[in-house]
Amino acid sequence: MPDVTKAQTTDSATVDAVAPPAVGGPALESAEKKEKPRSLWGDAWYDLRHRPMFWVSSVLLVLLLVIAAFPGWFASVNPRDGDLVHHYLSKPELTHFFQPDWFGYDQQGRSIYSRVIHGTRASIMVAVGVTLAVTLVGGLLGMLAGYFGGWIDSVISRIIDIFFGLPFLLGAMVVLNAFTERKEYVVILALASLGWTSIARVTRSSVITAKQADYVTAARALGAGTTRILFRHVMPNALAPTIVVATIALGGYISAEATLSFLGLGLSDPTISWGIDISEGSKVIRDNPHALLFPAGMLFVTVFAFIMLGDAVRDALDPKLR
Predict the structure, then answer these.
(1) Are 195 and 134 in contact (CB under 8 A)?
(2) What is the rounded distance in angstroms from the CA atom of residue 29 to the CA atom of residue 98?
(3) ∠209-203-53 over CA atoms, to 5°?
(4) Is the predicted pLDDT of residue 289 greater than 50, yes or no?
(5) Quick one: which of 20, 69, 253, 282 has the fewest CB in 10 Å?
(6) Distances in Å between the alpha carbon of 47 and those of 36, 59, 314, 320?
(7) How far apart are CA 167 and CA 174, in angstroms?
(8) 181 in helix, strand or coil?
(9) Which residue, among 110, 74, 75, has the nearest Cα to 89 in the 3D structure?
């Protein structure tokens, strides 16, 4: 008589060997815990961390911010001190790293390296100040126009159209020409008074899209007030395009400040600016191009870093570009 118990044990072991693992086991639960859904900002940060362009631009900008905050750490010579006897338009000493004569001297015997380092503060200050001002004003007006619509939207949109009709640099030149002493805050005021329209339009479009979402309708049905809906539900979800435009515009505002200073309508002495040095260097570019190339190169690197950062942020926040 066959051994029934042994046969049943063998069949059971065979079935267990070929049977698939139970659904919903500990391994699956662990995988589900690890792959939690990310928010828009979490997804954007995850994407940014894997972009070399983001890290390159971030390192450059952090270095520029440190230079702007503590220029004395990088250049020990006073950028306003000149020596016409010994250092008038002296050539660069490219092997003298971080020394006053590294980039040579300008027409007044001043260290170009020291002026390039100390000029970072004015350019960064103007760019950040203008960006904060236009984001605050343009974002607020765009949010009001997009959310309330009706006559509020019509009035704000017509004001935006009027300011759009004014050439940006020409309008800034007219405003700055009214001031005899042009400090950083004057340039910020002139550029911000004309640069807020782009932010306002982008914010308006984003708010119009966000206010039609189901979560806004649900919040309104539950009795949430206008202020709570605007700042708790609409603004966080409409903020991404505004941040992208503002980040890219930072580099443009640095270029605008340098252009105005080059034309003699931007920052004025005793403020140290790359635009002023570029204007002075252009007068001797044939015989002494170093007086122009080094401040212009610093301007290029700064603008390029901001544009790279803006492109990386745009690609991370816009799912269509992935």
Answers:
(1) yes
(2) 57
(3) 105
(4) yes
(5) 20
(6) 16, 17, 11, 13
(7) 10
(8) coil
(9) 110
Q: What share of the chain is helix, strand, coil (3-state, %, to 5)?
A: 70, 0, 30
Structure tokens at 226: 């206008």
Tokens of 282: 């252009």
Does the pLDDT at position 9 exceed 50?
A: no
Q: Pseudo-torsion of CA 267, 270, 274, 279, nearest 10°? A: 80
CB within 8 A of 101, min separation 6: which ones? Answer: 87, 90, 92, 93, 111, 113
pTM above 0.85, yes or no: no
For 242, the token pair is: 């505004």
Quote the CA–CA distance of 111 and 102 in Å, as a whole number.
8
pLDDT tens column, 157-205: 899 888 888 888 888 888 888 887 788 888 898 898 888 888 998 888 8
Residue indicated by tokens 């270029």 = 255
Q: What is the pLDDT of residues 226-261, one digit of tens each?
A: 778 777 777 777 787 888 888 888 888 888 888 888
Cα distances from 106 to residues 68, 117, 270, 278, in angstroms, run: 21, 14, 16, 11
Q: Which residue has the tokens 């100040």?
A: 129
Got the DSSP string for 73-135?
GT--S-TT---TTT-TTPPP-TTSTTSTTSS-B-TTS-BHHHHHHHHHHHHHHHHHHHHHHHH
Among residues 200, 203, 102, the alpha carbon closest in space to that of 160 is found at 200
Structure tokens at 120: 């970072």
